[in-house]
Protein backbone atom coordinates (compact mmCIF):
# COMPACT_ATOMS: atom_id res chain seq x y z
CA UNK A 1 0.00 0.00 0.00
CA UNK A 2 1.23 3.46 -0.79
CA UNK A 3 0.65 4.76 2.75
CA UNK A 4 2.80 2.18 4.53
CA UNK A 5 5.68 4.61 4.56
CA UNK A 6 4.02 6.45 7.45
CA UNK A 7 4.98 3.73 9.93
CA UNK A 8 8.62 3.50 8.98
CA UNK A 9 11.01 5.00 11.53
CA UNK A 10 14.71 4.70 12.34
CA UNK A 11 15.83 2.77 15.40
CA UNK A 12 15.96 4.93 18.50
CA UNK A 13 19.47 6.14 19.29
CA UNK A 14 20.95 5.96 22.80
CA UNK A 15 19.91 8.96 24.88
CA UNK A 16 20.54 9.01 28.62
CA UNK A 17 19.86 6.10 30.90
CA UNK A 18 17.13 3.74 29.82
CA UNK A 19 15.90 0.20 30.12
CA UNK A 20 15.15 -1.84 27.07
CA UNK A 21 11.94 -3.59 26.05
CA UNK A 22 12.25 -6.19 28.81
CA UNK A 23 10.72 -3.55 31.08
CA UNK A 24 7.16 -4.14 32.22
CA UNK A 25 5.77 -1.54 29.81
CA UNK A 26 7.67 -2.96 26.87
CA UNK A 27 8.79 0.32 25.26
CA UNK A 28 12.17 1.99 25.22
CA UNK A 29 12.04 3.75 28.56
CA UNK A 30 13.73 7.08 29.22
CA UNK A 31 13.95 8.59 32.68
CA UNK A 32 15.52 11.64 34.28
CA UNK A 33 14.71 15.25 33.51
CA UNK A 34 17.57 15.93 31.09
CA UNK A 35 17.21 12.67 29.14
CA UNK A 36 13.46 13.10 28.74
CA UNK A 37 13.82 16.74 27.65
CA UNK A 38 16.43 15.78 25.04
CA UNK A 39 14.15 13.02 23.75
CA UNK A 40 11.24 15.46 23.43
CA UNK A 41 13.37 18.11 21.73
CA UNK A 42 14.70 15.51 19.28
CA UNK A 43 11.13 14.97 18.09
CA UNK A 44 10.98 11.28 19.00
CA UNK A 45 7.56 9.63 19.00
CA UNK A 46 6.50 9.35 22.64
CA UNK A 47 3.83 6.91 23.76
CA UNK A 48 3.20 8.56 27.13
CA UNK A 49 4.92 10.31 30.03
CA UNK A 50 4.58 9.68 33.77
CA UNK A 51 5.27 12.67 36.05
CA UNK A 52 5.48 12.36 39.80
CA UNK A 53 2.65 13.96 41.73
CA UNK A 54 3.28 16.91 44.02
CA UNK A 55 6.69 17.90 42.69
CA UNK A 56 7.68 20.71 40.37
CA UNK A 57 10.74 22.31 38.90
CA UNK A 58 11.86 24.13 35.79
CA UNK A 59 12.73 20.94 33.95
CA UNK A 60 9.47 19.18 34.76
CA UNK A 61 7.47 22.26 33.78
CA UNK A 62 9.29 22.34 30.45
CA UNK A 63 8.52 18.65 29.91
CA UNK A 64 4.86 19.31 30.62
CA UNK A 65 4.84 22.30 28.25
CA UNK A 66 6.43 20.43 25.33
CA UNK A 67 4.25 17.37 25.89
CA UNK A 68 1.11 19.49 25.90
CA UNK A 69 2.23 21.27 22.72
CA UNK A 70 2.86 17.94 20.99
CA UNK A 71 -0.33 16.37 22.38
CA UNK A 72 1.58 13.62 24.19
CA UNK A 73 -0.41 11.93 26.98
CA UNK A 74 0.93 12.92 30.42
CA UNK A 75 -0.17 11.22 33.62
CA UNK A 76 0.57 12.43 37.15
CA UNK A 77 1.34 9.38 39.29
CA UNK A 78 2.57 8.69 42.85
CA UNK A 79 6.26 8.08 43.35
CA UNK A 80 5.52 4.45 44.25
CA UNK A 81 4.37 3.80 40.68
CA UNK A 82 7.59 5.27 39.30
CA UNK A 83 9.61 3.11 41.70
CA UNK A 84 7.76 0.01 40.50
CA UNK A 85 8.82 0.80 36.96
CA UNK A 86 12.47 1.52 37.80
CA UNK A 87 14.52 1.86 40.97
CA UNK A 88 17.08 4.04 39.22
CA UNK A 89 17.22 7.81 39.71
CA UNK A 90 14.23 8.90 37.64
CA UNK A 91 13.95 12.45 39.08
CA UNK A 92 10.18 12.19 38.99
CA UNK A 93 9.75 11.57 35.26
CA UNK A 94 9.62 8.52 33.00
CA UNK A 95 8.66 8.48 29.35
CA UNK A 96 8.09 5.62 26.94
CA UNK A 97 9.24 5.91 23.35
CA UNK A 98 6.76 4.44 20.91
CA UNK A 99 7.99 1.59 18.70
CA UNK A 100 6.01 3.06 15.80
CA UNK A 101 5.59 6.41 14.09
CA UNK A 102 1.99 7.62 14.28
CA UNK A 103 0.46 8.63 10.95
CA UNK A 104 -1.57 11.81 10.25
CA UNK A 105 -5.11 10.67 9.49
CA UNK A 106 -5.67 13.24 6.76
CA UNK A 107 -2.55 11.98 4.96
CA UNK A 108 -3.81 8.40 5.09
CA UNK A 109 -7.25 9.33 3.77
CA UNK A 110 -5.83 11.52 1.01
CA UNK A 111 -3.31 8.82 -0.01
CA UNK A 112 -6.12 6.30 -0.43
CA UNK A 113 -8.23 8.63 -2.56
CA UNK A 114 -5.19 9.69 -4.61
CA UNK A 115 -4.40 6.04 -5.31
CA UNK A 116 -7.95 5.50 -6.59
CA UNK A 117 -8.93 3.32 -3.63
CA UNK A 118 -11.97 3.56 -1.39
CA UNK A 119 -10.62 4.27 2.11
CA UNK A 120 -11.05 1.39 4.55
CA UNK A 121 -10.44 2.33 8.19
CA UNK A 122 -10.87 0.75 11.61
CA UNK A 123 -11.61 2.89 14.69
CA UNK A 124 -10.96 1.38 18.13
CA UNK A 125 -12.85 3.07 20.94
CA UNK A 126 -11.35 2.34 24.38
CA UNK A 127 -9.85 -1.03 23.43
CA UNK A 128 -7.26 -1.22 26.20
CA UNK A 129 -6.02 -4.81 26.17
CA UNK A 130 -2.62 -4.83 24.50
CA UNK A 131 -2.88 -8.37 23.15
CA UNK A 132 -6.35 -7.76 21.76
CA UNK A 133 -5.02 -4.64 20.07
CA UNK A 134 -2.14 -6.58 18.53
CA UNK A 135 -4.45 -9.33 17.29
CA UNK A 136 -6.84 -6.77 15.80
CA UNK A 137 -3.94 -5.07 14.03
CA UNK A 138 -2.86 -8.39 12.53
CA UNK A 139 -6.36 -9.01 11.15
CA UNK A 140 -6.64 -5.42 9.90
CA UNK A 141 -3.36 -5.58 8.00
CA UNK A 142 -4.37 -8.88 6.39
CA UNK A 143 -7.71 -7.32 5.43
CA UNK A 144 -6.03 -4.40 3.66
CA UNK A 145 -7.17 -1.72 6.11
CA UNK A 146 -5.60 1.66 5.35
CA UNK A 147 -5.15 2.62 9.01
CA UNK A 148 -6.26 1.94 12.56
CA UNK A 149 -7.48 4.98 14.49
CA UNK A 150 -7.08 5.08 18.29
CA UNK A 151 -7.79 7.74 20.92
CA UNK A 152 -4.98 9.75 22.44
CA UNK A 153 -6.11 8.61 25.88
CA UNK A 154 -7.92 5.49 26.96
CA UNK A 155 -6.50 3.07 24.40
CA UNK A 156 -4.02 0.21 24.54
CA UNK A 157 -0.38 1.09 24.94
CA UNK A 158 1.60 0.15 21.86
CA UNK A 159 4.52 -1.78 23.31
CA UNK A 160 6.51 -4.96 22.69
CA UNK A 161 3.53 -7.18 23.57
CA UNK A 162 1.40 -5.39 20.99
CA UNK A 163 4.18 -5.65 18.41
CA UNK A 164 4.59 -9.37 19.08
CA UNK A 165 0.86 -10.15 19.03
CA UNK A 166 0.47 -8.23 15.77
CA UNK A 167 2.98 -10.64 14.17
CA UNK A 168 4.76 -7.68 12.60
CA UNK A 169 1.62 -5.99 11.26
CA UNK A 170 2.38 -2.82 13.22
CA UNK A 171 5.50 -2.38 11.09
CA UNK A 172 3.29 -1.90 8.04
CA UNK A 173 -0.15 -0.72 9.09
CA UNK A 174 -0.43 3.00 9.89
CA UNK A 175 -1.85 3.90 13.30
CA UNK A 176 -3.45 7.32 13.78
CA UNK A 177 -3.71 8.65 17.34
CA UNK A 178 -6.45 11.26 17.60
CA UNK A 179 -7.34 13.62 20.45
CA UNK A 180 -11.10 13.26 19.88
CA UNK A 181 -12.71 10.27 18.19
CA UNK A 182 -15.92 12.26 17.96
CA UNK A 183 -14.24 14.94 15.86
CA UNK A 184 -12.47 12.20 13.91
CA UNK A 185 -15.79 10.61 12.95
CA UNK A 186 -17.12 13.99 11.87
CA UNK A 187 -14.00 14.57 9.75
CA UNK A 188 -14.37 11.18 8.07
CA UNK A 189 -18.03 11.79 7.33
CA UNK A 190 -17.19 15.18 5.84
CA UNK A 191 -14.62 13.37 3.68
CA UNK A 192 -17.28 11.07 2.24
CA UNK A 193 -16.49 8.06 4.44
CA UNK A 194 -19.39 6.16 5.97
CA UNK A 195 -18.91 5.28 9.65
CA UNK A 196 -20.40 1.96 10.80
CA UNK A 197 -20.48 0.94 14.45
CA UNK A 198 -20.33 -2.77 15.23
CA UNK A 199 -22.27 -3.18 18.48
CA UNK A 200 -24.89 -5.32 20.18
CA UNK A 201 -27.09 -2.20 19.95
CA UNK A 202 -27.06 -2.52 16.16
CA UNK A 203 -30.38 -2.36 14.36
CA UNK A 204 -29.45 -4.76 11.56
CA UNK A 205 -27.20 -7.74 10.97
CA UNK A 206 -23.61 -7.15 9.93
CA UNK A 207 -24.19 -9.01 6.66
CA UNK A 208 -26.99 -6.65 5.64
CA UNK A 209 -24.83 -3.53 5.79
CA UNK A 210 -23.06 -2.08 2.75
CA UNK A 211 -19.26 -1.99 3.13
CA UNK A 212 -18.49 -1.64 -0.57
CA UNK A 213 -17.93 2.13 -0.44
CA UNK A 214 -15.46 4.25 1.61
CA UNK A 215 -16.02 3.04 5.16
CA UNK A 216 -14.72 3.20 8.71
CA UNK A 217 -15.74 0.42 11.10
CA UNK A 218 -15.93 1.28 14.81
CA UNK A 219 -15.26 -1.36 17.47
CA UNK A 220 -15.68 -0.71 21.20
CA UNK A 221 -14.25 -2.12 24.39
CA UNK A 222 -15.30 -5.55 25.63
CA UNK A 223 -16.53 -4.06 28.90
CA UNK A 224 -18.58 -1.10 27.67
CA UNK A 225 -18.72 -1.35 23.89
CA UNK A 226 -18.75 1.81 21.80
CA UNK A 227 -19.21 5.00 23.80
CA UNK A 228 -22.64 6.63 23.69
CA UNK A 229 -21.29 9.76 22.02
CA UNK A 230 -19.92 7.73 19.11
CA UNK A 231 -23.04 5.58 18.93
CA UNK A 232 -25.07 8.74 18.33
CA UNK A 233 -22.96 9.92 15.38
CA UNK A 234 -22.36 6.65 13.52
CA UNK A 235 -24.09 6.49 10.16
CA UNK A 236 -25.19 2.93 10.83
CA UNK A 237 -25.14 0.41 13.70
CA UNK A 238 -24.77 -3.30 12.97
CA UNK A 239 -24.46 -6.41 15.07
CA UNK A 240 -22.94 -9.83 14.51
CA UNK A 241 -25.72 -12.47 14.58
CA UNK A 242 -25.14 -15.05 17.33
CA UNK A 243 -27.14 -18.13 18.23
CA UNK A 244 -25.14 -19.54 21.14
CA UNK A 245 -25.65 -19.15 24.88
CA UNK A 246 -22.81 -16.63 25.31
CA UNK A 247 -23.94 -13.18 24.24
CA UNK A 248 -20.61 -11.56 23.34
CA UNK A 249 -17.42 -12.17 21.38
CA UNK A 250 -13.85 -11.22 22.17
CA UNK A 251 -13.29 -7.84 20.51
CA UNK A 252 -10.42 -9.13 18.37
CA UNK A 253 -12.62 -11.95 17.05
CA UNK A 254 -15.53 -9.57 16.43
CA UNK A 255 -13.23 -7.15 14.62
CA UNK A 256 -11.96 -9.95 12.38
CA UNK A 257 -15.51 -10.98 11.46
CA UNK A 258 -16.51 -7.41 10.63
CA UNK A 259 -13.35 -6.66 8.65
CA UNK A 260 -13.56 -9.73 6.48
CA UNK A 261 -17.26 -9.22 5.76
CA UNK A 262 -16.13 -5.85 4.36
CA UNK A 263 -13.36 -7.61 2.41
CA UNK A 264 -15.89 -10.06 0.95
CA UNK A 265 -18.16 -7.26 -0.23
CA UNK A 266 -15.34 -5.07 -1.55
CA UNK A 267 -13.87 -7.95 -3.55
CA UNK A 268 -16.97 -8.25 -5.72
UniProtKB/TrEMBL annotation:
Domain of life from the UniProt record: Bacteria
Biological processes, Gene Ontology terms: methylation; RNA processing
GO molecular function terms listed in the Swiss-Prot or TrEMBL record: RNA binding; RNA methyltransferase activity
Region (Disordered): 1-25
SUPFAM superfamilies assigned to the protein according to its UniProt record, in alphabetical order: alpha/beta knot, L30e-like
Record domain RNA 2-O ribose methyltransferase substrate binding: where: 29-103
Keywords from the named record: Methyltransferase, Transferase
Gene3D superfamilies, alphabetized: 3.30.1330.30, 3.40.1280.10
Keyword Transferase among record annotations: yes
Signal peptide: none
One GO term describing the cellular component: cytosol
Pfam families cross-referenced by the UniProt entry: SpoU_methylase, SpoU_sub_bind
CDD domains for the chain: SpoU-like_RlmB
The keyword Isomerase is assigned to this record: no
PANTHER family from the UniProt entry: 23S RRNA (GUANOSINE-2'-O-)-METHYLTRANSFERASE RLMB
Protein name as catalogued: 23S rRNA (Guanosine2251-2'-O)-methyltransferase
Species the sequence originates in: Flexibacter flexilis DSM 6793
Amino acid sequence: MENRRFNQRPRFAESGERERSNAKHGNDMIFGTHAVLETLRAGKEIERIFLQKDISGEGLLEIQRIATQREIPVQRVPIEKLHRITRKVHQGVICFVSPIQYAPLDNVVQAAFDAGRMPFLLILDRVTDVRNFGAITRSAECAGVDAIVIPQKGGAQINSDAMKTSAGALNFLPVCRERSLLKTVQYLQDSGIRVVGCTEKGTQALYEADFSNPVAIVMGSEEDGISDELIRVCDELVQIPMTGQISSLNVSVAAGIALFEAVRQRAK
